């Protein structure tokens, strides 16, 4: 395999070496090729396969591989014509020749020979993968086939030859094996090798192919394809259990032979000339560092930071590394070049080091491969310092002295030694330093339910850190803001960020993001408890391997890693943390499905601090341990760490009033003021503060901000919002003006028409409101239901209660399972004090249908109140408020019920809370005849 230092195994081998031409050759197929069966175009129809022929034949001879490909594609559609009509054949001229044998169109009984007509391929000289930092030297021969049309069959036959001097006369090849469910008319994979070459072969597909047959001077092996569909495996099965759909062959006797053959490419004597620039770098390192470990770290940093990565596959560069001198002068190189440079530096620094081959992406599948260089696509350094084994990758980045003991996730490597070496298992351990560390500080001292100022800090090291630094250095302010916002959204959701920074510390190799702003309260109501989730480990862990099939029951589970993450949350609690308790696993120390978790929790001085450390080493879980680990994870998930607020905590409205009284909202106001200072012409910034002020029932403050937002950009949503705010401050004239302005902007908006109709009905213009509604005609969905509900309310406001009920009866009959309509009918009956017996049935059925029935419980509580069943009414209002604390309607009616039952203090508190949140709520209920 070429050493592209790539992220996945490429299956088609193109070796390096003997000089070849940079133009395609046009020759007949070689005589060792076995012709494919003829294609019967007379029997083609729409059900025929698009791939009519895919014939691969390869010959290994005298150190050369010759790959012959014969393909035929049915041009089944215009899309296929666009895709197949331009033939593209890449090849690497310093590795071998591209030989064109045939390009022809099959049309019924007609054979149109494009080559005989004089059509030829054009050679494109371009680096198509330069954006992937690969300088391949690959040329592409292209031909747009003249006259090709839908219904034709295009047949293309060509060969690639390759011979690689780095293999010292050995040969190796990899041939992909197509498999079902791919439909193909005829497919074949055939391999020949001369009797003088001791070739080993392996077909990794299901079932063994026939043994090779003698064909003159050659061994002839043929594999029937497509292979049967691969057996399905669970996604968490280790890589070695997955089928490699390849036919590979190699003349290497064993891994030791591969090691011996490749080792000369990385010999370093004489590569750093005295007095050269590299010799000067060696002298600097020696002068600055005496300890071998420090020298090793300095050499690795020099290679990682001072030489950029660029794959070089030109001029024999597939296996041959460029010299350290060239690498240093050019300041770029691929894994081969960086490894040789690092080796030369380490040897000059008297550090014991050797090259090792590795496979990115293959892991333990390497052990299933034939011994060959093709099994690898990467090369790194194994150093021994003070008795410690260090794995050093010159293509990595941000590695510092503290990280030298970390191991890459290759699992198996092959040391290159003069005497040869076998495969070496690579130990998997969690990194010493965190690859990511996040710290979140939230100040909830103003109240459990109020928005919270926050500070966040995220540290990322290694390659991810450098990528972040590179992106930040090239981004403008808006792009940086989006980048930081995207990263922090995982911690905070949709928080308002007002300060942000990204900085890179070259000494530590850490990129740091810092931000501050304001976020919604992180506390949530769960099972009637106000809770703050503190777990950052077990809750994120998913372990539910599927081993239901008999064939899977002996498969281990592969886990992620190596990785090291730290997450810390600091919370400043209200009232110094008085009454706050912890539930769940306050301490954790152990392994959970391959993840080692370490937890520390402290609660002191009003601050609650929880720190989780997560270490993953990528270890497998044996089949016999799966059930126990599943149970262990499940038990831990049932004990997730949470902070629980006191049961007798203040209600939200009480926290708002207390925060206002004690002037504890200054920090929050300062954040929004800073946001506006940075975005003085942003309507969205004014909207953000308006929403914040609305949440604190500061109607006039919110109104001033929405005024500014509309001045900067009028929309119907902003006009509707301001109309609502004007109503809250008892300015109906301005509210109507806003509704009219919204109508001017978008006359056909149903929400606008419904809002105006509701306003007209509540102000004695029910006839006009009804006419307005009847002019609307939505065809269905949510708008239809809203229109039906508002229409019934308008009728009721105009004194036509029977007509209102008839209208809803019709709507419910049309959509009998719609909870909103049933609730609307229950509410109408309750507020108008009619048909109370059927109202109960409506509400109860709606509660059964709804996912969140708090508003329906409120409606049923109204019905119970009308029936003078005060205890039942109180129970429903309490239940509604448990689901939706602070709901003004339920607070107001609970106040009414409490007053009727003689609870003056409770009633007054409820009225105050309801009025704070909805200043004109008493007027609304007065229209229903309810005046406490």
Automatic annotation (TrEMBL):
Signal peptide limits: 1-20
PANTHER family assigned: TETRATRICOPEPTIDE REPEAT PROTEIN 6, UDP-N-ACETYLGLUCOSAMINE--PEPTIDE N-ACETYLGLUCOSAMINYLTRANSFERASE SPINDLY-RELATED
Q: Where are the TPR repeats?
A: 854-887
Keywords in alphabetical order, please. Repeat, Signal, TPR repeat
**Name of the protein this chain belongs to:** DUF3857 domain-containing protein
Q: Which residues belong to any copy of the DUF3857 domain?
A: 62-205
Say which species the protein is native to. Sphingomonas molluscorum
Pfam families, from UniProt?
DUF3857 (PF12969)
- On the tree of life, the source organism's domain of life is Bacteria
Which Gene3D superfamilies is this protein grouped with? 2.60.40.3140, 3.10.620.30, Tetratricopeptide repeat domain
């Amino acid at each position: 395999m070429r050493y592209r230092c790539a992220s996945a195994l490429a299956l088609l081998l193109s070796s390096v070496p003997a000089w070849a031409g940079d133009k395609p050759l046009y020759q007949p197929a070689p005589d060792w090729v076995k012709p494919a069966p003829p294609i019967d175009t007379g029997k083609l129809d729409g059900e025929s396969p698009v791939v009519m022929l895919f014939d691969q034949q390869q010959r290994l001879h005298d150190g050369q591989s010759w790959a012959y490909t014969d393909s035929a594609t049915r041009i089944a559609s215009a899309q296929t014509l666009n895709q197949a009509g331009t033939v593209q054949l890449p090849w690497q001229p310093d590795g071998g020749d591209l030989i064109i044998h045939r390009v022809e169109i099959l049309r019924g009984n007609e054979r149109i020979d494009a080559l005989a007509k004089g059509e030829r391929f054009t050679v494109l000289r371009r680096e198509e993968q330069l954006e992937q930092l690969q300088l391949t030297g690959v040329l592409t021969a292209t031909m747009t086939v003249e006259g090709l049309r839908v219904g034709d069959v295009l047949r293309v036959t060509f060969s690639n030859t390759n011979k690689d001097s780095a293999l010292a006369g050995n040969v190796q090849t990899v041939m992909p094996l197509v498999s079902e469910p791919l439909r193909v008319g005829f497919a074949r994979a055939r391999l020949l090798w001369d009797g003088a070459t001791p070739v080993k072969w392996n077909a990794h597909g299901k079932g063994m192919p026939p043994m090779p047959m003698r064909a003159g001077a050659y061994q002839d092996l043929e594999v029937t394809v497509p292979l049967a569909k691969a057996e399905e495996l669970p996604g968490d099965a280790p890589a070695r259990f997955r089928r490699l759909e390849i036919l590979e062959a190699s003349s290497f006797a064993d891994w030791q032979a591969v090691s011996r053959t490749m080792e000369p490419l990385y010999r370093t004597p004489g590569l750093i000339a005295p007095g050269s620039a590299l010799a000067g770098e060696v002298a600097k390192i020696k002068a600055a560092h005496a300890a071998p470990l420090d020298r090793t770290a300095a050499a690795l940093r020099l290679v990682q930071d001072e030489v950029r990565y660029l794959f070089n596959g030109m001029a024999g560069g597939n296996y041959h590394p460029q010299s350290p001198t060239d690498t240093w002068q050019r300041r770029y190189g691929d894994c081969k070049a960086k490894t040789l440079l690092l080796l030369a530096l380490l040897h000059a620094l008297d550090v014991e080091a050797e090259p090792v081959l590795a496979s990115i992406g293959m892991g333990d599948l390497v052990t299933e491969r034939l011994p060959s260089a093709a099994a690898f696509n990467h090369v790194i350094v194994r150093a021994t310092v003070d008795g410690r084994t260090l794995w050093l990758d010159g293509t990595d980045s941000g590695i510092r002295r503290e990280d030298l003991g970390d191991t890459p996730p290759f699992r198996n490597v092959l040391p290159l030694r003069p005497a040869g070496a076998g495969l070496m298992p690579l130990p998997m351990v969690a990194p010493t330093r965190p690859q990511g560390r996040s710290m979140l500080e939230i100040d909830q001292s103003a109240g459990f339910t109020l928005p919270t100022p926050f500070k966040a800090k995220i540290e990322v090291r290694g390659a991810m850190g450098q990528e972040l630094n590179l992106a930040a250095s090239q981004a403008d302010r808006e792009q940086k803001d989006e980048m930081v916002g995207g990263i922090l959204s995982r911690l905070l959701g949709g928080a308002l960020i007002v300060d942000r920074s990204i900085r890179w510390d070259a000494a530590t190799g850490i990129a740091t993001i810092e931000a501050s702003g304001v976020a919604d309260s992180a506390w949530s109501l769960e099972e009637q408890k106000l809770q703050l989730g503190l777990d950052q480990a077990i809750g994120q862990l998913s372990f539910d391997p599927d081993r239901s099939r008999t064939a899977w029951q002996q498969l281990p589970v592969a886990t992620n890693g190596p990785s090291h993450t730290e997450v810390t949350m600091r919370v400043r609690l209200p009232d110094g943390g008085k009454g706050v308790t912890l539930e769940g696993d306050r301490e954790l120390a152990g392994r959970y499905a391959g993840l080692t978790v370490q937890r520390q929790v402290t609660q002191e001085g009003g601050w609650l601090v929880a720190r989780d450390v997560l270490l993953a080493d990528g270890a497998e879980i044996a089949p016999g341990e799966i059930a126990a680990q599943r149970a262990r994870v499940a038990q831990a998930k049932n004990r997730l760490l949470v902070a629980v607020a006191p049961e007798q905590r203040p209600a939200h409205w009480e926290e708002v009033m207390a925060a206002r009284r004690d002037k504890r909202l200054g920090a929050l106001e300062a954040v929004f003021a800073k946001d506006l200072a940075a975005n003085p012409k942003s309507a969205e910034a004014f909207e953000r503060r308006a929403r914040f002020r609305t949440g604190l029932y500061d109607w006039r403050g919110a109104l001033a901000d929405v005024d500014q937002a509309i001045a900067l950009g009028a929309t119907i949503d902003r006009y509707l919002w301001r109309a609502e705010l004007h109503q809250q401050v008892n300015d109906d004239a301005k509210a109507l003006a806003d509704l009219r302005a919204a109508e001017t902007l978008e006359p056909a908006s149903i929400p606008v028409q419904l809002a105006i109709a509701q306003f007209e009905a509540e102000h004695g213009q029910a006839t006009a409101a009804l006419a307005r509604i009847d002019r609307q005609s939505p065809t269905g969905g949510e708008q239809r239901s809203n229109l039906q509900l508002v229409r019934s309310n308008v009728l009721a406001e105009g004194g036509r209660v029977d007509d209102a009920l008839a209208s809803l009866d019709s709507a419910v009959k049309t959509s009998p399972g719609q909870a909103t309509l049933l609730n609307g009918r229950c509410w109408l009956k309750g507020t108008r004090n009619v048909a109370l017996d059927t109202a109960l049935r409506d509400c109860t059925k709606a509660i059964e249908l709804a996912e969140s029935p708090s508003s329906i419980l409120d409606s049923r509580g109204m019905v119970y109140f009308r029936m003078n069943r005060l205890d039942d009414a109180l129970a429903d209002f309490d239940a509604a408020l448990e689901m939706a604390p602070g709901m003004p309607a339920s607070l107001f009616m609970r106040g009414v019920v409490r007053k009727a039952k003689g609870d003056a203090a409770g009633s007054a508190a409820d009225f105050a809370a309801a009025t704070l949140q909805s200043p004109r709520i008493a007027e609304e209920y007065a229209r229903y005849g309810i005046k406490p």
